[in-house]
Structures are given as C-alpha cells and as structure tokens.
Specification:
By secondary structure, this protein is mainly α. 56% of the residues lie in helices and 12% in strands. The chain has 2 domains: 117 residues, no CATH class; 66 residues.
C-alpha cells in the first residue's frame, strides 16, 4: 500500500493563503533500477506521483520548492487573478492514482506557462511526467512529454545561469542527449555527447557526468552495429 510509504503534513498555500494537506513520501524506498535519463524505479511504489503538490482549496499546483519559497509578487498577482476567481480546488487524496498524478503535473505545467516560468522548472515537470507515463507503458504519451522536456532543457541551457540547485549545465546536456536517444534522434544525441566527452574540463570537474556520457555513447554504438 502506498499509504505505508507516505505521510501527511499541513502547509500554507502562497496563492490562497489557506492551510492545505500534502502527502509526502518517506525517504527509505527500495530502488529497483535507474534509466539512462535519470528516471529511478522503485519497488511497488512511485514517489513521482507525489512530486507536485496541489492545494485542495484553490487548485494551485507546483513542486515543494515553489510552495515553500518566495514567489515573486508579479507572479502571485497573475496566479491569484486567474486561480482565485475560478476557485477550483483539487480534492485531497491520500493515495494518488495514475490519473491524479498526471492531472497534478499538467496543472503545474499550466501555471508555469501562465507566469512564463523558467524553462528549467518546466523541463523538470515535463520530464517527470514522462516517467509516470513510462511506468504506465504509454509510449506515445511518454514521447510527447519527453519532447516537451527536451525543448525546455535546451531553452534553459541557452537562457539560464547554472548551476540550478545541484543541476549543472553539463548534467542538463547529458539529460538532453539521453532524451534524444530515447526519442530516436541519434544525431542530436551524438552532438551533445561528443561535446561532453571531448571536454577535458567535464572529465576533470564532473567525472560522473563524463562517465555516464561515455557509457551512453557506447550503448548507442553497440545498438547501431546490430
């Protein structure tokens, strides 16, 4: 049961300023495997279902960092104008279904689009939404979400300053390569990987990214020979 791996806390919504309930996941969850684009699979549970918080009163949706940090006043004004007039809360559920999770991510992407939020955050939402579709076996929906994610990641590389949290520009470049590879665009995947592998600075400063790039490069070459 998912409820055994989660717990409920109460937080304040920055948009409607009411207290709402949030389901958070416990830290110790058994990992079964990791995909080349950073998707982690867990035993009998998917914590990505709970990445996006939704306010049960007004319906605002975003990740924990957004809810718990200062939202710029100009963004709050836009969000309140749109959200509070509609007053469409999202019913609280302790155990989210696949459809609950998809709805939460789509709401988060919608609100980020409304405020013209950073591409790096929008990429994160779209990428994790793809992982949810991947687990469900919906390849078409996964690919559509991956296309969104890679577009946002590339825009972030051009327009934003890194690192963003623990995410470096080289880490994003690797994710872009991995996504393009999954989408079947070997040419673009190779372009990003060759930049990483050919950069001595990446090898020295970020050996983990360098090794992952070489591993993916090797996997792609092996499959091309088959």
């Amino acid at each position: 049961m998912a409820v055994e791996k989660t717990f409920i806390v109460e937080k304040f919504c920055p948009v409607c300023e009411k207290q709402f309930r949030v389901v958070k996941t416990r830290s110790r969850i058994m990992v079964t495997k990791r995909d080349d684009d950073a998707c982690t699979h867990y035993a009998d549970f998917n914590p990505y279902y709970y990445t996006v918080w939704t306010c049960e009163h007004c319906g605002f949706a975003a990740d924990e960092a957004t809810f718990t940090s200062k939202i710029p006043d100009r963004h709050l004004e836009i969000l309140r104008t749109i959200i509070l007039l509609k007053n469409n809360g999202v019913p609280f559920v302790e155990e989210r279904t696949f459809h609950d999770a998809v709805e939460a991510f789509n709401l988060a992407l919608k609100y980020m689009a409304i405020i013209h939020g950073k591409s790096s955050k929008r990429a994160k939402y779209a990428h994790q939404l793809a992982w949810i579709y991947r687990e469900a076996g919906d390849k078409n929906a996964e690919d559509e979400a991956l296309k969104q994610a890679v577009e946002f990641y590339e825009d972030a590389l051009m327009r934003e300053s890194f690192p963003i949290g623990e995410l470096t520009d080289n880490a994003v470049s690797y994710l872009v390569a991995a996504i393009y590879n999954r989408l079947g665009d070997r040419k673009k995947a190779t372009m990003y990987l060759s930049r990483l592998i050919g950069d001595q600075g990446v090898r020295e400063r970020e050996p983990r990214i360098y090794d992952k790039a070489r591993e993916l490069w090797g996997d792609m070459r092996s499959k091309s020979r088959r």
